[in-house]
Amino acid sequence: MAKPFEKINDINKMKELWKIAVKVHHQWTVISNNKEHIELIFVDANGTDVHVILPTTLKATFDSVLFVNNTYTVTNFLPQINDLMFKTSEHPFVIRFIAGTRVSDINKHEIPGKRLNFKPFSEIISGNWRNDLLVDVIGLVEEIGYKHMSAGSKKQQVNLILKDLV
C-alpha cells in the first residue's frame, strides 16, 4: 500500500521519512562564498508554505527538475528549525534536501497557487508585524531615492518611496 501524503503543517523533527505533494511557488539562487545553492518556497493543497534549501552539492541534480508553478511529490528530506534571519514562511521548520531526497510525479497534483497575504502600509508603519518575517506588499513606486555602494562591496543600495494603493 502506498504511503499517504502528509501536510506541510505536520512537518517536524520527530521523524525523517516524509511524503508531501507540493507546488513550487518561488525559486531563487543564493551565492555565498563563491558557491551557489537553490532556495524555494513550497505550498501544499491547504495553502501552507515552507522554505526549502537545496545545498550546493545537490544543485545540479535538481536545478533542471524543479520549476515554479509545477507540482511534485517530494520524499525523504530533513526538517530543520527555521532559524533564518529573514523568514519567507511562518512555518517553524525549513526543508533541507539530502542525498536521499526524491522528487517525482511532475504535475500530477492539483494544487492552487500560494495565497498572498498583503500587509497594509499602516500596519508596517505602526510596527504591527514580525520583523523577521518577509511580508507581501503592493504599492506604487512614487520616487527613487539616492543610490550608494555598500562599503567594501559591489552591492548597490537603492531607496524607494512607495505609495500605498489601499
UniProtKB/TrEMBL annotation:
The lineage of its organism: Eukaryota, Viridiplantae, Streptophyta, Embryophyta, Tracheophyta. This is Replication protein A 70 kDa DNA-binding subunit B/D first OB fold domain-containing protein. InterPro entries: NA-bd_OB-fold (IPR012340), RFA1B/D_OB_1st (IPR003871). Residues 5-104 form the Replication protein A 70 kDa DNA-binding subunit B/D first OB fold domain. It comes from the Eukaryota. It comes from Pisum sativum (Garden pea). SUPFAM superfamilies: Nucleic acid-binding proteins. CDD domains: RPA1_DBD_A_like.
